[in-house]
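In the previous chapter we treated chains in isolation. Here, by contrast, the input contains two separate entities that must be folded as one system, with a combined length of 654 residues.
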Amino acid sequence: MNDVYSAILNSYTPRLVSLGNDITAAIFQFMKVFPATFCLKRAYEDGLVTSRSLIIESSSGNMALGLALACNLSGNPLTIVTDYACDDCLRQRIEHLGAHVVLVSKPSSIGGYQQARLNRLAEIRAENPDHWWVDQYDNPANPGAYSFLAEQIVGTIGQIDCLVGTVGSGGSVCGTATFLRELFPEMTTVGVDTFGSVLFGQQDETRELRGLGNSLLPQNVDHSIFDEVHWVGAAEAYTATRLLHRETSLFCGGTSGAAWMVARYWAARNRGARVVCIFPDDGHRYIQTIYNDQYLHCKELWRVRLPESPVMVKHPGLASSGWSCMQWGRRSYVDALTLAGSLAK
Amino acid sequence: MKAKTNGCDLHRDLSESCFGVGYARSIAQHGELFQGQIEDRECRRRRCLVSLPCKEMYSEATFEPSTTKTITIQPPHKLKAKRSAELTCEYLKVPWNGGSIRIESTVPEAKGYGSSTADCVAATLAVADAANTYLTEEEVARLVVKAEVASDNFMFQDAVLFAHRDGIILERFAPSLPRIEVIGVDTAEKSYVHTLEYPPAVYSRQQLQSFRILTGALRYALRQRDVRLLGRVATASATINEHFLPKPLFKDVVAIGRDVGAVGVAVAHSGTVLSVLFDPQDRQLERGIHQLRQHLCDLGISKIMRFKT
C-alpha cells in the first residue's frame, strides 16, 4: 500500500501558483485522490483491510473517483453508492477503473440523497462480511491526509497569513489549517460553503452548486478552526470560475472559482498578507456546464458582474440568495449559532 | 592537505612518513533545532534531527598507532570514542593493530551538547589523520553512528536533515545554517541525560504528521535564511519533545522569549539545555537579550552561554 501512496503522491502533487495580489493557489488536478489513498493506507496499517477486502463508500463523485484510482492500484474491489450528481462520464470512468457503481434514484425525506445513499450502503455492508467502509465524513484520516499539503505550502512560501477553501467533508480545509496553525496559530481560516448546506447552520435544501456544502454534518468539520464563513451561490461560483479562466488561464472546477472569489476579497482587505487558496479540481468535468454558455444562460447561472464584497450577516439563517459572510470567530457550532441567534434578534 | 568538516580541522603531521600521530578536533552543539521522525519517500519511518552547532565547545583527539593488539583510550570511560577509533581502523584497513587515543574535551557530558558525538568525530578524524588519509562527511557520519548508535549531525558543513540512527542524510537544505544569536541555559544543572539509557520517543500519529509540516518549514527557513520561521520550527519541535523529556521552566522560557523578541526556543531532545534564539538582524537584539537575562535571573538562572552560529 505504501507503493500505491507514493505513486499517487508522485502523480497528483498539486502545483502552487502565485496569482498576484499575494494569493497563492494550491492547484489540484484532482484533490480527492489524496484523502482516498490516505484513508486506505491507514486502514491497511491498522489491519482493517487486506488486499481482498471490499472497499465501500457513499459519494456523489470526487471521493468515488479518488477511491477508484487508489483501489485500482491496490487491487481491492470497490463499491460506490452514488446518486444523480455523479454524471455519466464520471460514472464510466469509475467503472473503467474496475469499481462497481450503485445508483440511488430517490432522496430520503430527511438528509436527502446523502441519507438515501447511506441507507443503501448499510445494506451492502450487511451483505459483505469482509468489507471496509471508508466513511470520509467521520474518518480522521481524511483531514489527516493533508499534512503533505501543509508541508508543501510552508516549504514553498514560508509564513502563511490566511487559508481559504471550500468545505464539504471538512477534510481539506480543517486538515490543512490544523497543521499550518501548529506553526502559525494566528493564521486566519476562511471556509466557503453554499446556500442550503447544513455545515454552518443553514437549513438543508436542494443545492445547485456541488463539490462543497453538505446535507449532513460530518465530524470532520471542526467549526472552531474557522474565523470567517462565506456562503456562495452557483451563479456567483460559476461566473467566478469563468473569470478565473479568463484572467489567469487556469481551467478549474466550480469550487475553485468560489474559493478564488472569496480569497480575492480577503486579500484586497488585508494587503501584504499571504493568502493560500485551495483549488480542488480541474475544469474538464464541467465542460458541458460551467464552461458551456448556453447551459449557464438557460439555467440563469450567469452574472454580468460579480459583487465586490459579500453581504455581512450575523446569523447563518440571514444568508439568503447572494454571496454572504459571517464572522465565525473560531467558535463551536453550538456557540456560533447560539450567540449569533441572540445577536440577530 | 587539509580535511575539514563543520569546524572540525584535520591537519597533517608534517613528517613525511605515511602514517604517524594523528590529531583532529570537533565542535559540539547546543541541543537541536529539530528532532522528530518522518516517512521518507519509500514510506520508511526515520528518526532525524538538525543540530544547533556550537563552536565554543570542542573535543580534541590525538591518536598514536602502535604494534599492540588493542586500542587504549584516555580518559578510559570514553568508550564510544574508542569504538569509533576501532571502527575507523577497520574501515580504513590500516596497517597497524593497535594504538592509543587521548581525548581532551571542553564539552560537558549528558547535557545535550553532543559530547560523545564530538569525541567520536574527533577520534574518527584523528585515526584518518594518522593514516594520512581523508574521510568524507558521510563516511564520518556512518562510522560515528555505528559506534554510538545515535549521533548528532555537526560533522556536516551543510544544513542537513540527518537520520541520526541510520547515519544518512535525508535532505540537504542549504550550504549552511543562517546566522542565529543564541542564549543557552541549563535549566537543570544537577541532572543529566544519557542518550542510550532513554528509550527513543514513541510519537503519536498526530505528532508524526506535525513533523511533516515542520520539515517543510525547515526547508523554506534554511533555504531562504528565514530565522523567524526557523525559530517557530524549533519551538514546535521542542514543544512536542516536552511530552517525552520535559524540561523544567520550558513554558516560562518560551513565554519570556516571546516577550523579549526572541524568534523561538530550541531544546536538547536528549539533554537538559535550552537555547533561546534571536535574529541577529533584529535592531532590538541587545535590549532583548538584556531583558532575557533579567527574566532568567528572576527564575534563578544566572549562568548563561552566548554564542552565534
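Chain B has a mean pLDDT of 88. Residues 211 and 255 of chain B are 22 Å apart (CA to CA). Compare these points with the single-chain example from earlier in the chapter.
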